[in-house]
């Protein structure tokens, strides 16, 4: 097992390297001059050259990359151009906020997705299956910003039950799990949960139906297990795949839905990315994407390990 | 009293657009300690008959009629807990493909122990102890280690031995074997057949052995029942069936099997045509369209069961003609 872990970690290295290369290259791939948002349009060539030197843009690419990677390794992702604050702290705060939202959405989405999927898979082709499948398709296809706005109209404007925007009551700093904060979390989390819910429901339905059609389920009944006993076996067989889907979904949601976070003014990564793009804040963009990509790599690693622990057929060597 | 008593068993699958009559009026009795081979090609209804004995055919998509009595219990009347107690305890089943019939994510020991705990109560440790005892009994080498193995870590023969151990875990009275050696290599096949025969005698099991291989049937069975299109067309003691087959289909099966006298390169004799569509059966004898003895009356009149020798029953209007081996 230790060997397996080490090997998986080793495999992750080239991915991390590739990811950081792409992030680094972003500055140079993006159209226009990397200094365009720092310098006034009428800056002299001399000022321009001084700024190039200050940012290190005059050195060869590989040197620039090594320097950038070295700093990133030490937690220094540069300064945000727009706010002049360290990118690292901005990103960490945003990731923390998005994590709250993403975990809440994943939990809700997963609970309902699994419920619908298992029920639909068990009662395939019945009206329950059709209802659950329809709901799943709607969940996957409905535009989420639209759903968010509809929910705001219903629950905030009309009924006045839940706040429409922000992470907490004005003046509060940091997130604490109290009623007020949970109320603020409710609508964005619900809106976001529709994405994993639809995908999980459809995956689980197919998974359960596939497992139920296998011979060993008949064999389990033949040896006298109750439906509950058979269900336990189905769950254990479905778990590795379901966990993998959940991990990937959490990864996608961590990237933050730009649209959902913008609709609800949720100060997460999506919100941050949105701002970074519009303000051409390249260091911020670079840093955010790098952190998110690393998160995704780590999450994949965790999913792989968990999956291996659950399914004996996956080779551990 | 027979250990297994089937009377007028009908199984109809109603899931599709047209009802499919997979089993049509099967009568079969198996005594304690007796092995009956249910012989037939794919789709003849032999596996469906076997599954009906444990009520394993999907309830919502099939209709079962007739009477099924196993070890004195009316299987058709069993519900819920009583049905669970019956399955695996009174009658248990060995499946064709052990790699598919065993749960891939549980160890073999856990799967056997689970069954023992379910039927006999007691601790998991007691269940594992029984599993170990059974692994020794079916001659799995290094049984302690193999109990902790997952199905995919074992060879096909070992998996089928484990499946047999699982089926015998709660000392059933009736063993239902659904082509248990079909998926195995020829040499392993013989070993498993010999093991099954040995265990069947030792436990005094009433066994129904479904197979499409007449050679296997001869090897394990006391009696053979030949099925065609959902019906038993001929039944009798093994020697009688082999030496004196009377139904044209049985004769065809025997001829299609390569005999010792077959010359190299000689054409193997096959039964022409294909089995009928069970959702649109013609009137009369279902085998008539493929039968070389058929006469016009065969496609009109449904043949009744007729005793041609003691214990030897045939459903054929032309059984007189098949007596003299033609050609």
Automatic annotation (TrEMBL), chain A:
Subcellular location: Cell membrane
Keywords noted in UniProt: Cell membrane, Membrane, Transmembrane, Transmembrane helix, Transport
Any one GO molecular-function label of the UniProt entry: dipeptide transmembrane transporter activity
Domain ABC transmembrane type-1: 95-307
GO cellular component terms attached to this protein's record: plasma membrane
Domain of life: Bacteria
Its membrane topology: Multi-pass membrane protein
Annotated Pfam families: BPD_transp_1, BPD_transp_1_N
Transmembrane segment boundaries: 9-30, 99-123, 135-162, 182-201, 242-264, 284-306
Family: Belongs to the binding-protein-dependent transport system permease family.
Name used for this protein in its record: ABC transporter permease
UniProtKB/TrEMBL annotation, chain B:
Record's GO cellular component terms: plasma membrane
Chief place of localization: membrane
GO MF assignments: ATP binding; ATP hydrolysis activity
InterPro entries: AAA+_ATPase (IPR003593), ABC_Ni/Peptide_Import (IPR050388), ABC_transporter-like_ATP-bd (IPR003439), ABC_transporter-like_CS (IPR017871), Oligopep_ABC_C (IPR013563), P-loop_NTPase (IPR027417)
Pfam families referenced in this protein's UniProt entry, alphabetically: ABC_tran (PF00005), oligo_HPY (PF08352)
UniProt cross-references to PROSITE patterns, sorted A to Z: ABC_TRANSPORTER_1, ABC_TRANSPORTER_2
Location in or out of the cell: Cell inner membrane
Keywords from the UniProt entry: ATP-binding, Cell membrane, Membrane, Nucleotide-binding, Transport
Superkingdom of source: Bacteria
Topology versus the membrane: Peripheral membrane protein
GO biological process terms on file: peptide transport; transmembrane transport
Residue ranges annotated for the ABC transporter domain, each copy included: 6-254
PANTHER family to which the protein is assigned, alphabetical: DIPEPTIDE TRANSPORT ATP-BINDING PROTEIN DPPD, OLIGOPEPTIDE TRANSPORT ATP-BINDING PROTEIN APPD
Similarity field: Belongs to the ABC transporter superfamily.
Protein name, UniProt field: Dipeptide ABC transporter ATP-binding protein DppD
Organism: Falsiroseomonas bella
GN (gene name): dppD
